[in-house]
Design goal:
homodimer, alpha/beta, 2 domains, 6-stranded antiparallel β-sheet, 14 helices, 15 strands, 32% helix
């Protein structure tokens, strides 16, 4: 049976101004794949719906977010290597700076990762019999997990997203579980401020990391593994925690790639080489993720998006040499003119899927005339199972 | 945030004989929008399903008829300005001529509207404690509402649609509610004939309006408003009662446009100007409807359909000047060769939705190669929310 690479270029799609970054970039290798393969347009979730990165990746990898998603927290926590138990409630967490009761910096001056690691040790505690687990990642970022009986993710966030006091966490349903969880979050928020304010690491900082903001509450529920559902031994090559977390959620392996940072300075070639190594061993499927285009889109930085695409293009020959089927697409559009996710379709190309079309370029306008037509996120795994000859017949 | 016009040209789609009316018509302004925008084909409800005008409009405006439709009556009644209460059962009504127990003219010789208004006053009554409300509209047309406890729309119609006696109304389920409602309808039919036969207005008429035929029974259920569901302050510019009724059902405002008749003699330019005024004030969204193409299709009148399209084309510059995003499409095909609704897709164009394609004309054959591909009615509101930057992200 054939092997496959699903290459998700985060925030790939764009709008013409008058060219799109994909139209402006020099991508001879992607062009070659488009010429030799078949192309189309993809609505990652459904037509014109604006996908989040979390929901879109679940959908593209065959895990319908309607059933498998209730918040981003568990995916982030898994991505940081926290092992989750059924019923855990997890959050995305930020170190922040509070002054005179106001959140003056949501990122605590992008606190150094080492200092954040040291401060993190102050944040493990137990509240009302519920275990609180905190883990930091890069700079101000981290994840928090509540583990105990009777918790709920139907609660609000504490991140005010503006120069305001930390938001109080409120339950958003009438259950005892939501009330209890909100209470614990508020207590944690208070304890965290007390402990962090007194920490020696913060003494000389202009922007002390003296508070923790929580958002994206989600309840972890175990899911059937990717290999059990789709019969492919899978590995994830990604930098960002969310993407590794989504892969962990599906019980994929996670490649350790030095230099894969999840930003524009990532080592693109190291990631491509990691894909090649994985396929040379016994993996059947690689979920390959690159974040840089999305970041450039959010920053409204056309040149940076073009540059990222040109670097991505250099990965293609390495991927091609593996002999695997290659699917290249995005999880959503992040147009540089909009600086946010939009519901516009993203181009998709399928290389070594046997069929071909007349499209010779890989961009939003060309692929709209492609032989695949318009497909949706739910179609991706069936497509891969079909072209790798793994699909089971329905009926006889 | 941007504003949008959804321009629904009723019965737009057609079949080649050897040209379609859209291909034969001179529509330079629609062509310009097609050139500068992006096009595709639309299945108003689902692929190849033959839409009614009622179900199609509900679907295109984001109200899935599977949940929001159980008969045309309530939409017609709302369109005539009757205020409905939860549980009301409403019907489309026709004045008809009965002679020797046979319906000899289903339209009572297209009775003059003034005479019909006068006769209508005889038709308000109370039967078994149920209030009967009748309101006429243009010529023989009107709506009837039953208001009271324990009514059901699971009943047959009284319109024989042929030169036969008035059909007896039968319940179509075993409920007491259906039995009661059918009984009331039959009593009303009898009382109406008695009262109308004796009316002085009918004395000298060759085709007296001496009976009322009822069809399209539906039970009114209140729906969440359009603004609450989609966040757009919306207004409807239409002539026909059904379309205004659908808009009322969604709690949209209804523009008063003198000269908007809902037929081929409508004042096209007055309607376009009404759209421009609405968008110059605080409306975000205009549902614009023109009926003339559908009527020409039902009449099998190719020339008349071409003429209507050319008049519609003259509206476009006025719409364009508003600066709003413009979506032009139809609610179904009414091919002149078939004289009825069919399930063939209708062309759609999206102007100011950012993306473009290579299509240069607005017709059935050209748009089938458009960059939108084939979309469905349920995709229209998400499309509009996306291009006007109103869509909320699903996930994070």
């Amino acid at each position: 049976m054939k092997k496959a690479i699903l290459f998700i270029i985060d925030g790939l799609g764009d709008l013409p101004t008058p060219k799109t970054p994909l139209q402006a970039a020099k991508t001879p290798n992607l062009e070659k794949l488009a010429k030799k393969g078949i192309t189309g347009m993809l609505s990652p979730i459904s037509r014109y719906l604006v996908p989040g990165s979390d929901t879109s990746h679940l959908q593209l990898l065959g895990y319908d977010p309607k059933f498998f998603y209730n918040g981003r927290g568990p995916l982030e926590a898994l991505g940081l290597g926290i092992e989750l138990h059924e019923g855990d409630v997890a959050f995305r967490a930020n170190f922040a700076t509070v002054k005179d009761g106001i959140v003056v910096d949501r990122r605590a001056g992008r606190v150094d990762t080492k200092i954040a690691s040291s401060l993190s040790k102050l944040l493990s505690m137990e509240i009302e019999g519920v275990k609180v687990i905190f883990k930091n990642s890069v700079e101000h970022r981290g994840a928090l997990v509540l583990r105990g009986k009777g918790l709920s993710c139907n609660i609000g966030e504490t991140d005010p997203h503006s120069k305001d006091p930390i938001s109080k966490c409120y339950p958003i349903d009438d259950s005892a579980e939501a009330a209890k969880t909100a209470r614990i979050v508020n207590k944690f928020t208070e304890f965290a401020q007390q402990r962090l304010s007194m920490a020696s690491e913060n003494k000389s900082r202009k922007k002390p990391a003296n508070a923790v903001l929580l958002r994206g509450a989600g309840e972890y529920q175990e899911a059937t593994s990717f290999i059990e559902r789709f019969g492919m031994h899978a590995i994830c090559v990604a930098g960002g925690a969310l993407y590794k977390g989504a892969a962990s959620f599906m019980n994929m392996d996670i490649a350790l790639v030095p230099g894969a940072t999840g930003d524009k300075n990532t080592d693109f070639i190291a990631k491509a080489n990691a894909v090649a190594s994985a396929l040379a061993s016994d993996y059947d499927f690689v979920f390959l993720h690159v974040k840089a285009c999305d970041s450039a889109g959010h920053d409204g930085d056309f040149e940076s998006k073009v540059e990222a695409l040109e670097k991505i293009d250099m990965m293609i020959p390495i991927l091609e040499k593996t002999g695997a089927c290659i699917i290249v697409t995005g999880d959503h559009s992040t147009p540089v003119s909009m600086k946010k996710h939009t519901g516009h379709e993203v181009p998709i190309l399928v290389y070594r899927g046997e069929r071909t079309d007349n499209v010779k370029k890989f961009d939003e306008k060309s692929c709209a005339l492609g032989g695949l037509g318009h497909i949706e996120g739910k179609d991706i795994i069936p497509l891969i199972l079909n072209i790798t000859e793994r699909a089971e017949k329905y009926g006889s």
